Amino acid sequence: MHLDLLRSPLREEARSLITIALKNGAHKGGVRHLLAENDDEEIRLDVYPIIAKDISERAALVVFTPVTVDRSRMSETPIVGEEGDATFERIRNLENEVATTREALQQTIEELETSNEELQSLNEELQSTNEELQATNEELETSNEELQSTNEELITVNEELQVTASELSGRTGELISVLESTPLAIVVADSALQITQATLAATRMFNIRRPISSPHISQCALPEGFPILAPICSEALRLGQTVTEEFTSKGTRIRLTCSPYFDVNGQILGVTMVVSEFPGMAHEMEMILDNSKLLLLNRTRGGEILRISEAYAELLGLSRDKALSKNVFSLMKDNDACKEMFGEDDSVLEKPDGFDSELRQVTLADGGEERWINMDHHRFPHHITGESTFFTIGTDVTETVEARERAEGLLRQAEMVQDMVGIGFWSIDSDGQTPYWSPKVYEIHGVKPEEYNPEIDSAIAFFHPDDREDVQRIVSEAIETGSGFTFIKRLIRPDGVEIRVESQGMAIRDDNGEVTRLVGIFREAQEADS
Asked: Does domain 292-396 have CATH number 3.30.450.20?
């Protein structure tokens, strides 16, 4: 309900009470009003604040409370004159008006206090606004100075751009000259694959007419073995990155590189295609794959053979031509050699360094002899898609493995002999490093292999102090001159026991006659030897 609908003085009092109640957040009651001279009831206004927190709004409930007029009380009030007298009635009315006026004045005082507080708050806000305006004025003055400085800079930049434009014009002429004279086949096309520039070598290679009239790249005449150019260029535009294709044309290895070029805002303007030739490389690679004993295989993650050497194909029971483009996993179904070769190869694709090496024994596809193959596995990106492929380089080390097994057998026999006759074996490099002791030598010295790692200085330290210098001299002379030696010296074990030991040694020379190692025997000297 709008307050203007109330009659005076209820209208004015309602406005005042609502303001005070909302400010204090508490009930506020008004004075009583006699609306008519002979009414038995007076009207009192009561205002209750209502705060709606959920919607951040405030309202007030105005209650019109009727109050019965106490006529008897009025009659008891000592008033000069008698009831019915005009003076009596006048005085009573004046008293009621004074009471009403007093309450109204009280409300007015409260309203004035509220208004005063609001004015003070408004004054503070105005002062704060004035300070902000002053600060803003200062900022505007600073901005004006900055704009003037920026304007001067823009004038300078404009002058520099004019100079740069002149230089770019010169550079454009130079680039056109370079395109005309470079021996590389280079083609520049816009985003619609319309050729805008091409070197003389490119016009000859792709039969492009000069002057160039913006033909589509699909109109280029392709030399033998060349892939279709439009899909490669479209892929470079779609990806926004360089696309590379490798192939063989007339015995020459060709690399075709297609790269997008951009404007200053990073928008693709077109592509640049460069054709690089590697004369003879393809032929040489084919010779290696056909005739070398090297085991080489390049395959995709899905198993498709991309490249294979003849030696590797023979290991699988196939020729090189028949193995190309086959799937190694389909070969595994009925080929035990394939199962042994490819069983767990894919694990290298997941390794951080993309490398693994192993020694693997495989049975030839014809069911013949078993061979030992040392295989290096590499993760290698596909030259077109960039996806990881599997590259294996293997060598047949069967003879090496068999020789090592024979040497290990002879070593075990020698260890049996040394246990029977009490003789140990030792060796040392020509630089005095990497000594080797057989178990019997450890036993004579009174140490265990797991507790002591032999070194030349600590080994000589086992000898008696008076014999160490002589032992050092004998070993050094043998390394320098290649002569043999025999000596009997005193040796002190870690437990303090002193024994006499005999050692004999000889030098091992390489094909150039240089001493590479000293080898010899070591035993505890007998009394007769002493």
From this structure: yes
